[in-house]
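Summary: Need help interpreting a holo structure output

Steps to reproduce:
1. Submit the protein chain below together with the SMILES for nicotinamide-adenine-dinucleotide.
2. Request a joint structure prediction with the ligand placed.
3. Inspect the structure token block that comes back.

Expected: a single structure record containing both the chain and the bound molecule.
Actual: see attached output.

Input attached:
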Amino acid sequence: MRKVAVIGLGHVGTAVAHQIVCTGAADELTLVDVNKDIARAEAIDFQDSLNNMPAYTKIFVNDYEKVGEADVVISAVGNVALTISSGDRFAELEFQSKAIRDVSKHLVDCGFNGKLVVISNPVDAISNLYQQCTGLPRNHVIGTGTLLDSARMHRAVGKVLDLDPRSVSGYNLGEHGASQFTAWSTVRVFDKPIKEFVKENNMDLDKIDEESRVGGFTVGSVKKYTNWGVSAAAVRLMNTILTDAHTTMPVSNYREEYGCYLSYPAMVGADGKLKQEQLDLTDDEKEKLQKSADSIITNTKKVIS
Ligand SMILES: NC(=O)c1ccc[n+]([C@@H]2O[C@H](COP(=O)([O-])OP(=O)(O)OC[C@H]3O[C@@H](n4cnc5c(N)ncnc54)[C@H](O)[C@@H]3O)[C@@H](O)[C@H]2O)c1
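--- attached output ---
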């Protein structure tokens, strides 16, 4: 039995739940929101879709006892308007510091002992806060981090080269936010370093880096939220845990040497983060990563002492 719970049923939580129901990725799905009516309404809407779905999902609603049984809980709690209107994910931190403490208390009270996938922004700071408030092991709390930003970078590279983004590999590292960067030394196309494609294709790597960094706001300035890109990233991370896939992915995980959660590739499986990778970064990339870690810590301290 694969048991999953989604907490926070706004644009993102419902997109996550939708992908889970459409793909039959869980046997039991528990939906929770502080706005109990919205959770109930979404649950009924999903139940109404089941008759025409390829798989059956048993759906529970606003039931923290069921959350306690989950293998994976996905947090999409938040107030996205604060991020979109300010252009800064840290603008959500004050709101989140209360909401995440509230959810964490429920998670502790219901005895949740599974893996926590964090989407809630600012995701690096929130992953840390969840870990501290729930007391779950650090390797069991993982943020989606730059799994989404790396996908944005792959999309932008793929567009220039007229390729499926899945033919591009490599990482955006650091904060899921303004201080992240594309580590070009890790980026490969058809298993060749990206630098072999730059001249011939007139590629502007700085422009692609910027495009992936601001991608959320490019979409958000029109939609007022983003949901499909991040839900695909979160469900992939969830599936990696449920299937014990041992996949290396750029997710937000605690790195002792930086003293915070930030995105750096880690191997993920049933026990959460199984192993942290060690990239051979250039000096410039190492410096950018340190600056990104400093930025996460400084911005967090402004709100949470
Ligand atoms: N990590 C990423 O890549 C990424 C991408 C997009 C959005 N996000 C973040 O995901 C979060 C959700 O985005 P959204 O667009 O769905 O936001 P939203 O404002 O539409 O929905 C948030 C939901 O959380 C619920 N909620 C608030 N406090 C709660 C609590 N204490 N317990 C249970 N539920 C609670 C609200 O009632 C609401 O339904 C935001 O923090 C957003 O910034 C992250």
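--- end attachment ---

Reviewer comment: Residues 147-301 form a domain with the L-2-Hydroxyisocaproate Dehydrogenase; Chain A, domain 2 fold (CATH 3.90.110.10). The chain has two domains: 3-143, 147-301.
Status: needs-info
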